[in-house]
Design goal:
alpha+beta; five-stranded antiparallel beta sheet; 5 strands
Length: 79
């Protein structure tokens, strides 16, 4: 999985998997979260937003189920 760098003070990078509808977001704070069942248009709009953090807070953060990204996710992503 290759994360795309984002121009944001809060969000460092993101990756979207259209097959699984999983949006992975890495934060400058060091954490990474996977958001589940995210429509592709939300991922595209997040990555192209003038304010990625603002878009994230308004359209993704509380709207989609998420969990912390961990080593098991890396193993699944590599398959």
């Amino acid at each position: 999985m290759q994360l795309k760098p984002l121009k944001s003070s809060a969000l460092a990078a993101a990756h979207y998997d259209a097959k699984t509808k999983k949006l992975t977001i890495k934060f400058h704070s060091g954490g990474t979260r996977n958001y589940l069942d995210v429509p592709e248009h939300h991922a595209r709009e997040l990555m192209s937003a003038k304010s990625c953090g603002g878009y994230y807070h308004a359209h993704i953060r509380e709207r989609y189920n998420s969990h912390k990204h961990d080593a098991r996710d890396e193993e699944r992503d590599d398959k």
